[in-house]
Write a structure and sequence with these properties.
The complex is a heterodimer of chains A (240) and B (261). Chain A has 8 helices and 9 strands. With 240 residues, chain A is an alpha/beta fold. Helices cover 43% and strands 18% of the residues of chain B. Chain B is α/β, with parallel strands linked by helices. The chains are: A alpha/beta (240), B alpha/beta (261).
């Protein structure tokens, strides 16, 4: 059993459903030569395509699983690929599923997250607002004309995550099709947010008083969180 | 002429327009913005750091949210949800980008009204760093600073590379400019500094004033009927045609060794 079993299962159903409907396309991982730059700023006049503009729905999720559920190297796209988009702005979801050995869940979460934050690609601007799971990207006109695609972005993310020694497999899902198809992911996304926030609270605050904690319902539902709490509490008591 | 006190690490130029209240900092900032707008120099970030938000009015930029609003929103979201410092920094970056109003090569950011009471040192640091980090991606950042030395004292302008001191023809205004330079010498790692005398009758008046100070004189800006008209009609300075004040700023600030050297 893992922290994200339920949302992972729901996302798997979503992906399978989209393939079943014929509305998903699959790309394999292709090694990308990093052309790293700092966190870029792309102004409107230089933007070829905007993904997840703050006025549009967007979601970014990061889930991990010690089991074998993650299909390594698979990039699934629901909706138009970036160079083929007919609109200049699209809703956007970016779901990253990681398989590996996660001995310390919180350290692993931070390492995974930092790896995704540090993906810097020329002609690509990304900003995330973790409290809302929002992601906002701009692809420059130049990068778009040069073929910047879901496969390039997905491969870059996979490559960055697989540099971590505890990561065995990475799978990526992008949704660019419609507001509705991004919002279909709200159920699993809300669960992921609750679980991650409960995890952060446990490690950052080291307060184990469940009666006072606003995440008690989350821990009641996700047994693994309670196990982490018990482990942390035992470690702290051992230190005292 | 400008004082060169060494190179900074970044090639991005950050100009702070400082001086006593009422000397015309905002007008000078608006004139520089007009010259940098679509002039091929690359991306320009204009920061209205004066709580009076006059620069936004001069450029017809009325952002719905300011840096101070972002500060309040982040404080609210932290109270509601657990987060750590990395996610907090990501949230600040997201919201800062969200409030940049851009048009052509020019991005505009308003700092807004003074901060509410309460100690949020970590967040204030993140906000300052977010402005610095944002400005690093613009070829030029122009800050219309609050009057006096307060912002310099609070080190909110630590990344300034070019200190543009503005005075009118009053000796008192030059003395305030000197005070700002003194404070900035400790608080800001600037590489260029100079004095611009605004609303001068002629060069002689500007030279006479600067002879009573050790601040290097960049130039002088005449009273200008076109500028006055744009001000009184609340027209955007980004549409200002060539006029004596605009050309004086071009030669004193943009074409002199101050910015181009």
């Amino acid at each position: 059993m893992g922290l994200f079993d339920q949302p992972l299962a729901e996302i798997r159903d979503y992906i399978d459903g989209k393939y079943g409907e014929g509305s998903a396309q699959e790309f394999p991982f292709t090694p990308v030569i990093p052309r790293a730059e700092g966190a870029q700023v792309i102004l409107s006049e230089d933007t070829g395509l905007e993904l997840g503009n703050p006025g549009m729905p967007s979601r970014t999720l990061l889930l991990w699983d010690a089991g074998e559920s993650v299909r390594d190297g698979r990039i699934t796209l629901v909706g138009p690929d970036f160079p083929a988009a007919s609109a200049s702005s699209l809703p956007f979801a970016q779901i990253l599923m990681v398989g590996g050995d996660f001995s310390d869940e919180y350290d692993c979460y931070r390492d995974l997250r930092d790896a995704t934050y540090n993906v810097r690609l020329r002609g690509f601007m990304t900003r995330v607002f973790p409290g809302r799971q929002s992601i906002w990207c701009r692809v420059s006109k130049e990068a778009l004309a040069g073929g910047f695609s879901a496969q390039v972005l997905g491969s870059s993310l996979i490559q960055a995550l697989k540099k971590l020694d505890f990561v065995r497999s990475v799978e990526v899902l992008f949704v660019t099709s419609s507001r509705e198809e991004v919002e279909e992911l709200s159920g699993p996304a809300d669960k992921v947010l609750d679980i991650v926030e409960a995890l952060i609270k446990m490690y950052e605050e080291m307060n184990f008083d469940c009666e006072e904690c606003e995440y008690v319902d989350v821990c009641d539902e996700v047994v693994e969180l309670r196990q982490i709490r018990d482990k942390l509490k035992a470690e702290r008591e051992g230190d005292e | 002429m400008s004082e060169d006190v060494g190179e900074t690490a970044s090639s991005a130029k950050v100009i702070a327009v400082c001086g006593k209240g009422g000397v015309g900092k905002t007008t000078i900032s608006a004139l520089i913005s007009r010259l940098l707008y679509e002039d091929g120099r690359g991306k320009v970030l204009v920061v209205d750091a004066d709580p009076a938000v006059g620069l936004g009015m001069a450029l017809n930029r009325f952002p719905e949210r300011t840096v101070n609003d972002v500060r309040k929103e982040i404080i609210g979201s932290v109270r509601e949800r657990s987060t750590d410092s990395v996610d907090l920094a990501a949230s600040v970056d997201y919201k800062m980008m969200e409030i940049v109003m851009d048009s052509g090569n020019l991005g505009f950011l308003s700092v807004g009204r003074p901060e509410e009471e309460g100690c949020y040192c970590q967040l204030n640091t993140l906000l300052r760093e977010a402005i610095e980090s944002l400005s690093a991606h613009f070829e030029v950042t122009l800050i219309d600073a609050e009057a006096g030395v307060e912002q310099i004292n609070r080190r909110v302008m630590r990344s300034v590379t070019h200190l543009l001191l503005v005075s009118d023809t009053a000796l008192k205004a030059v003395r305030v400019a000197e005070s700002i330079r003194k404070v900035a010498a400790d608080a800001v790692n600037y590489s260029k500094m100079g004095l611009l005398v605004n609303r001068a009758r002629d060069e002689e008046e500007a030279l006479h004033l600067s002879s009573r100070s050790d601040l290097p004189l960049l130039g002088w800006i005449p009273e200008d009927e076109t500028v006055r008209e744009f001000d009184s009609e609340a027209r955007s300075f980004l549409e200002l045609p060539s006029c004596p004040a605009l050309e004086a700023v071009r030669s004193s600030v943009l074409q002199s060794g101050f910015l181009s050297g």
